[in-house]
Design a protein that fits this description.
heterodimer, A: 315 residues, mainly alpha, MetI-like fold, B: 281 residues, 2 domains
Chain lengths: 315, 281
């Protein structure tokens, strides 16, 4: 570190002493931590207020109006939420979203844990393997989802072709054509994409566990399972908790996968809250109603954020 | 005997699951590539083996480049990703630096706000955002996404950079100040250069996120000449019920290549950025 200190001193000394030339009252003021901080902070804070804060509150405002894309707005109070409360498709989208999020998260977390445990052993070309296994997560979601649409194509798609060629079935199932199969399919594709995120994050967590812990547990006579249960798992819990919370947020608010793969069909059986909000506001042009659907996701987000904050505080 | 046992153990505990993970992760890309390289006659022949190619052909790639605006979409995507990443790195640094290294009133509240905004999903904001972009008369311009992508990227970048900025000892800055440097100079000449890995991580991450973005591009860019790759492929290569699978897969593959290339060069930084939150937090 001392070399770095010396190097930095050298540059600072070599620099023409700006500070002392500008040593007027203004210059001194700028050197105060709080003034300097707020001078730096003002542009990004203003930007975020304008493009995040304002849209959020404008969305709340919109949800109290009946407003078609072109027409003028009329105040309806909580009317939009009453309409949604009586809208069976809205409730179906809520149920779909909960089911989709719950199943996909469990699959991703358990599969990711498995991937991390496998990857945590020593073998050749580990770095390359890790990089390849992460590919589903980094390739643009929409593009890989289009590939999945083709894999799941009932006639010429890969899955059904393999089923037919191998003689397992005369004709394969209609992967996206029936409500149950469509839900299974979107969960499968979401899991395929998100599992490596769990795997690589948990692997990073595994690598922070000191080897000595395992060694002393072995000396104390712990079995492989015992070491996993009493050494590995407790050490991993913080990582798993945080990654799972992140993933729940991403999955609960997912849009593009369903938009591309099923468009919410068949018969609304795969509509998520985000795709329903989109189809109401952009498809049917009802901005107020669409905003109301989006806003009804806020309590879930709030709850998750509170959980996350409490957990991080505890540590 | 012992050797055989460990060999068996390694087969079941390592090689079999590893190959399974490998196959599951990568077969869709193989399928993409195989599809894009077949002629339509072979592609839709029910008797042909699905994963082998008898007569490789570049016809779908040629058609893709000739008949669609694919190259324009690639150029748009790159331009948008570079500009959005640049803006986001600048604003993210301005946000993270004081939060990580200075004491001032409101700092804890602001830090929490940044963390919360990082986790606010797009699907919550797109309805009012579409309205806002419409009123700013930015519909069908690349500026619309260049302005809105940083809202997704700045909180994340700030959060990631804060971790890096905190690791530089305070004494370095104090020493520079004693030696007569201004706070600005101490920051730009002493602290920030030491955080290069953080900037690379944040930059790579932001760049790939900007290339992948779909929802805002779908809302704001409906004219073909301003589209990005994801929205161009979904919007124009899927024509009604008739799918042009060969061209679609060629487009999906070509669209993934830039991201995959950048990723492969900077894999270490990408993984560092990905796991920073979960492991350090």
């Amino acid at each position: 570190m001392s070399e770095v200190v010396e190097a930095s001193r050298a540059t600072a000394l070599a620099a023409p002493a700006h500070g002392s030339i500008r040593s007027g009252r203004l210059g001194a003021l700028v050197q105060r931590e709080s003034v300097f901080s707020w001078l730096m902070l003002t542009p990004p804070v203003l930007f975020l207020l304008a493009f995040l804060g304002y849209p959020f509150f404008y969305g709340v405002y919109l949800s109290f109006f009946r407003r078609e894309v072109a027409g003028s707005a009329s105040f309806v109070g909580l009317g939009n939420f009453v309409i949604l409360g009586n809208d069976p498709i809205f409730w179906q989208a809520v149920r779909n979203t909960v089911l989709f999020t719950a199943v996909a998260t469990v699959l991703k977390a358990s599969g990711g844990l498995g991937m991390a445990l496998v990857m945590n052993q020593s073998f050749r070309m580990k770095a390359l393997t890790r990089a390849s296994l992460l590919l589903p997560f980094i390739v643009p979601t929409v593009l890989s989802t289009v590939a999945w649409q083709w894999i799941l194509d009932p006639g010429m798609g890969l899955f059904n072709r393999l089923l037919v060629v191998s003689g397992l079935a005369k004709t394969g199932p209609s992967w996206l054509g029936t409500p149950t199969m469509a839900m299974i399919s979107i969960i499968m594709v979401n899991t395929w994409r998100g599992l490596p995120f769990f795997g690589i994050s948990i692997l990073a967590g595994l690598q922070t566990i000191p080897v000595e812990l395992h060694e002393s547990a072995t000396i104390d006579g712990a079995s492989t399972w015992g070491r996993f249960r009493y050494v590995t798992l407790p050490a991993l819990l913080p990582v798993i908790f945080i990654v799972t919370t992140f993933s729940i947020i991403l999955t609960f608010f997912d849009f593009q996968l369903v938009y591309v793969l099923t468009g919410g069909g068949p018969a609304n059986s795969t509509h998520l809250m985000a795709t329903y909000a989109y189809s109401l506001s952009m498809g049917a042009g009802q901005m107020g109603l669409g905003s109301a659907v989006a806003l009804s996701m806020v309590p879930v987000l709030g709850l998750l954020l509170v959980l996350l904050t409490l957990y991080v505080r505890k540590d | 005997m012992v050797g055989e046992l460990t060999w068996r153990r390694r087969l079941v505990g390592l090689w079999v699951p590893l190959v399974a993970f490998y196959v599951v992760a990568l077969f869709p890309f193989t399928w993409m590539a195989a599809t894009s390289l077949k002629t339509n006659a072979e592609l839709y022949d029910p008797k042909a083996m699905p994963l082998t190619i008898r007569h490789p052909s570049l016809v779908h790639y040629i058609d893709l480049l000739r008949e669609t605006n694919f190259l324009i979409w690639i150029a748009n995507t790159m331009l948008v990703a570079v500009v959005a990443t640049g803006i986001s790195l600048l604003l993210g640094t301005m946000l993270a630096y004081p939060l990580a290294r200075m004491r001032f009133r409101g700092a804890p509240l602001l830090a929490i706000t940044v963390a919360v905004t990082y986790l606010v999903p797009q699907s919550l904001l797109f309805v009012p955002m579409a309205d806002l972009i419409g009123r700013l008369k930015l519909g069908n311009t690349l500026s619309a996404v260049m302005l809105t992508y940083p809202t997704l990227l700045v909180p994340f970048i700030a959060w990631l950079l804060m971790g890096y900025f905190k690791t530089v000892p305070k004494e370095l800055e104090e020493q520079a100040l004693i030696d007569g440097a201004s706070r600005w100079r101490a920051m730009t000449r002493v602290i920030l250069p030491l955080c290069m890995p953080g900037f690379i991580s944040a930059g790579i991450f932001a760049f790939t996120l900007a290339q992948n973005e779909f929802l805002y591009a779908l809302l704001f860019l409906s004219r073909s000449s301003v589209r990005t790759v994801p929205i161009g492929v979904v919007g124009e290569l899927i024509r009604g019920d008739a799918f042009y699978w060969g061209q679609l897969m060629a487009g999906a593959l070509l669209g993934s290549v830039p991201v995959a290339l950048i990723y492969s060069f900077f894999v270490k930084y990408y993984v560092a950025g990905l796991t920073a939150g979960a492991v350090k937090g």
